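Much of our argument rests on the idea that a fold can be written as discrete symbols. The amino acid sequence and the backbone structure tokens for this protein are reproduced below:

___
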Amino acid sequence: VFKLNDLIYCHHMSPIGTKHSLIAVATKSSYVKLCDMKSGSSSHVLKGHTSEVLTVRWSTRNQFLLATGSRDNTLLLWDVRRSSGFLMSLDQHNADVMTSKQQTNTAHNGAVNSLMFTDDGLHLLSSGTDNRLRLWDTFTGRNSLVNYGPVPNSSRKGSKMCMTKNNIGSDFVFVP
């Protein structure tokens, strides 16, 4: 039993993790807790957001890459092996990718409350309360600037997207 002392919005375990058994937990606090299933303890605390963390998602390509979204409108990418902080803060306007705690980038004009990596792990989808769906390159942190049109999203907490392929190989994203 993990004692987190906060309301939990989301949790996720790596779908490809072989070198760790960490569960990322998004809570009402401004940080992410990593709980280690092997040791039974909270092994890391990731600090970088300034408001509640609503969603967490492990990469489907790199078992150490974690994406987190917050009520502070930011989307951060982390390499959980690094102790120095997040890898990058993604910017909806493709300004310089911030790599320090002095972040000014915003991924959405509202809370980031849903994340999902594509099956190949090359892209990350984010949804926010600004009613936008954004597609990010996970290596460069760049917004692809694809216009999906308005995607209604009034959830004040985290929500889950899902993706499927049709019979001709196109991807479809379902956003609740």
The chain has no helices and 13 strands.
